[in-house]
Design brief:
It contains eleven helices and two strands, in the order H-H-E-E-H-H-H-H-H-H-H-H-H. It is mainly alpha-helical. It has one domain. A two-stranded antiparallel sheet has the order 1-2. Strand 1 and strand 2 form a beta hairpin. The protein is globular, with a radius of gyration of 18 Å.
Length: 248
């Protein structure tokens, strides 16, 4: 019974995300527009971090896209559904809270995979990148699995009582993560104090792992530690807050 409900709810959630104009605009079109703009201005064949700027920026903009989806489509949606009484309504239906949140997580991971395929394909067609199949695969896998901590951040945002405030906060957080994390511009081009902050952010560590793979290296140990640590902390914190509020 729960399995069938999970499958049905996941399908419905996936369709809701894909049909959302905000998803198309902020998770696909805007990252692609930034990608082509930055690659054009900086020079697609310019060497950076032992790779080309076209490849380097492709990883950055894919990371930015998945972070945006986790914040706007996941966190904000949870907040509005809680405000509108959807969580209370669940108690009157066979749909359990675990199936509700689980279907959202699975749907977003499926959409994240689709997003990676779309952005990677666009970059490859535009610049005919010299990357091996293994590089495409490991970079895509890293970005896909690495998006989980940002879903945890989105879940924490979803615990906020004021759903309208979540929209503003989510946008500020994702922009800060993108800029300070070096996704829009390499940290070398930012003021030194911003770079000192940026290297500790999960957004930088997220993209850094993919950048390393482009140059033939594995993600750094600190990439793993910060991403896994953030995922665990934010998921436990959001779960604790939700359980406390439901109990009250």
């Amino acid at each position: 019974m729960n399995k069938n409900m999970l499958i049905s709810q996941t399908k419905a959630e996936s369709l809701r995300i894909i049909r959302s104009p905000f998803f198309l605009l902020f998770s696909i079109l805007m990252p692609l527009a930034f990608y082509f703009l930055f690659a054009s201005l900086s020079g697609a064949n310019k060497t950076i971090e032992s790779t080309t700027y076209a490849q380097y920026s492709l990883m950055s903009m894919t990371a930015f896209s998945l972070i945006s989806t986790a914040m706007s489509q996941f966190g904000i949606r949870i907040s509005y559904e809680r405000r509108d009484g959807w969580v209370r309504l669940l108690k009157l239906t066979p749909l359990t809270p675990s199936v509700w949140i689980g279907s959202k997580m699975i749907a977003h991971m499926g959409v994240h995979l689709l997003t990676i395929l779309v952005i990677f394909s666009a970059g490859h067609v535009a610049y005919d990148m010299d990357m091996t199949i293994l590089q495409w695969f490991v970079c895509g896998l890293w970005l896909w699995l690495g998006s989980l901590p940002f879903l945890a951040i989105g879940a924490l945002l979803g615990t906020m009582k004021n759903a309208d405030a979540v929209v503003a906060i989510a946008n500020v957080v994702q922009m800060a993560l993108a800029i300070l994390g070096g996704l829009w511009m390499p940290l070398q081009g930012l003021p030194s104090w911003m770079g000192q902050i940026g290297v500790w952010l999960p957004s930088y560590r997220y993209a850094h792992g993919a950048w390393n793979m482009l140059s033939g290296s594995a993600p750094a140990l600190l990439d793993w530690v910060i991403l896994i640590g953030c995922g665990i902390v934010f998921m436990l914190l959001s779960g604790y807050i939700l359980n406390r509020r439901e109990a009250v």
